[in-house]
Amino acid sequence: MSYKEFSLKIAPIKSVSPSRFLGLQKCALREIWGLSNSPLLPSLPYNYFGKLVHLMFENSSNGIVNGLPALEAFWAIELDKIEREMKSDELAAHFLPLSKWIKNFHVKRQICFKHSLKLFENIALHKINDGQSALTTYTGPELQLKTLDGKIAGKVDFIRDNGFGIEIIDYKTGAIFEDDGVIKADYKVQLKIYAGIYHEVYNELPSKLIVVGLNGEEYPIDFTKNECAELLLGARKLFDDIDSCIKNKNSSELFAQPSLDNCKYCQYRSACQKYWQNMPASGLFCDLRGKVKDIVPVLNGTISIVLDNDNEDIRIRGINKECHKFYNFIIGDDVMVFNLRLDANATFTTTATTTFY
Ligand code: SF4
Fold this sequence. Notes:
By secondary structure, the protein is of the alpha+beta class. Helix content is 38%, strand content 21%. The chain has 3 domains: 9-37 and 135-279, Alpha-Beta Complex (Lambda Exonuclease, Chain A); 42-120; 281-356, CATH 2.40.50.140. The longest helix is centred in the middle third of the chain and has 29 residues, at 105-133.
């Protein structure tokens, strides 16, 4: 079999970001590839939407955009930029316009505006307080926090002084809770590491760590000084381990940790040998490999193909040239297919994120 091979770059890491710490712990290869290579599988439209909402929050809390007309104008400009970027990306162009793919797009837009206005008011208040109390602590929107050795670094959405201590705040545009109703572990760990950095640099432990949702609701996270310090220590050790592996030019396979949880949303599955070696032949997320045995045009304009997958014939329906790039295979080609859906009648059908290599 001769499947497409990818040669992805592995560059030295400059620092570990608190937001990527758990991801690095789970599968370092996914994160390291993500630093220097474009994704090989599509992002969901919600990721682009989240980027837009985050930009709105960032600029409102920076005091750059205020008032509904300014917000509407900013939204239109940034949405246009994101959609143009998507249009030039073969993996994303079919998700246009974004409004068609995001459920309740206009309602979500209004909620985003409402929260952006609130953020602007917060920053105005922050400036007044700052002038009156001559704060000596490090507060404000979009602040870089970095350990003294520079190994752990990242940007905090907002740091404010509530009069009794420092609050570290992070805006989230997606789901905040796990299925069991607790705040996602990634978010908790991220904020606790920021608290550890703040304490190391300013010799003051924040009084509160807060996650803010798209609706503006604030969710505090419990923490102790010790767990923040331990997480910071763990992040430093992880930086040292990965840094030395990269500098020693160890095989990239050493970094790969395939598992259901780790690989599910990985956009580099097509390049990862360890993924294919460890996954069942029929693929865990409806990813398949095989030799093209038959190509059948269908009356509705789509095509279906039959793949020889370890001597088992597997039919894939619903291949559409508008949506599914890189499908120009011919009989006898070895192809990899990602993100299919397994139907009740045991046939595979394409989805909006199906990709062929
Ligand atoms: S496919 Fe799995 S093992 Fe490979 S890089 Fe992605 S997450 Fe890691």
